[in-house]
Specification:
It comes from Streptomyces luteireticuli. The protein is an alpha+beta fold and 78 residues long. The chain has a domain of 51 residues. The protein has two helices and six strands; from the N terminus they run αββββββα.
Length: 78
């Protein structure tokens, strides 16, 4: 599998080292974004398991789309 972003940009066949969590595109190290969000797993009505960090691999597009919107952010007017 080759990196989709490399292919889309200039047609090169750079080998992929990961797959995007959002869109399943192949990614090379140059286009890979890694996040480590905290994951909490509820356990019925009792206490939840201890929070754990998970690894999520994203392309630049999905990484930007998954980022939280900050207060005061306004979209550009048309």
């Amino acid at each position: 599998m080759n990196c989709y972003d490399c292919h889309a940009a200039d047609g090169t066949g750079t080998p992929a080292v990961a797959v995007c969590h959002g869109c399943n595109s192949g990614l090379c190290p140059a286009h890979l974004r890694v996040t480590r969000p905290e994951l909490r797993r509820p356990n019925g009505l009792g206490a939840s398991h201890a929070p754990a960090r998970v690894r999520r691999l994203w392309c630049a597009t999905c990484h930007a789309a998954s980022a939280p919107v900050t207060a005061g952010h306004t979209s550009p007017s048309a």
